[in-house]
From TrEMBL:
Protein name (record): sphingolipid C(9)-methyltransferase
Pfam entry (one): CMAS
Molecular-function annotations in GO: methyltransferase activity
Pathway: Sphingolipid metabolism; Lipid metabolism; sphingolipid metabolism
Membrane topology: Multi-pass membrane protein
């Protein structure tokens, strides 16, 4: 938090323009609303029991014409035995209580039930596997310092986790979904968002003209 706020000040912005706070999401003042909200792989850690409450809070924090980027990790719905084992391993050793890594269909249902309209959905699991693989290599390359600070057990658990996470994301057992959405209100200016609705814009390589 200090590092980020120092960077903000160094770049000439006052705290009323930009600031980083370290606090529980439930402590965000309810009277404050935002034009943009980014929720990056947090919802799965909120848990299934609190998922609906969390989404209602997001809804209340967002301006009526605001946008949310909602990124969440998930598992495929037609699970194989190894997928179930993967989820149980993570819940016991890596992310205790993070039981809301669910399928895309489940996530979409929850978002729509909370009053959001989805604008765009990207399934980024295969890209995330590349990131995870680099985390894995970085972890192994710092073995000596990690052992000295956290010990052998912690090093082995995370070595195994990052290796398995790379494979799981690459073979489809796990994925990460990035969803752009807004409130599902009649008055929302949907036409103004056409230019940023990237999913409907064809590429030149495909021989199609962009939608205008």
């Amino acid at each position: 938090t200090k590092y980020c706020n120092d960077r903000i000040a160094k770049n000439g912005l006052s705290s009323d323009k930009a600031r980083v706070l370290c606090l529980d999401y439930r402590d965000i003042p309810p009277e404050k609303t935002f034009t943009k909200i980014s929720c990056l792989e947090m919802a799965e850690h909120v848990g299934i029991r609190r998922y609906g409450t969390f989404l209602r809070q997001l809804y209340d924090l967002l301006d009526d014409d605001g946008l949310i980027v909602f990124q969440v990790a998930g598992l495929r719905p037609a699970w194989q035995y190894e997928d179930l084992t993967w989820g149980l391993f993570m819940n016991k050793y890596v992310f205790p209580g993070a039981d809301a890594s669910c399928s895309l269909g489940w996530v979409v249902t929850q978002l729509e039930s909370a009053g959001f309209e989805l604008k765009n959905v990207d399934v980024l699991g295969v890209h995330y596997s590349a990131t995870l693989y680099r985390w894995y290599l970085n972890w192994l390359s710092n073995k000596t310092s990690i052992l000295g600070k956290y010990g052998d057990r912690w090093f082995r658990i995370w070595s195994f986790f990052l290796a398995w996470a790379t494979i799981a994301s690459r073979q489809g057992s796990a994925s990460v979904f990035q969803i752009t959405m807004h409130k599902n209100l009649n008055a929302f200016h949907r036409v103004e968002g056409v230019n940023t609705h990237f999913g409907i814009h064809a590429t030149k390589q495909g021989g199609f003209e962009p939608v205008v």
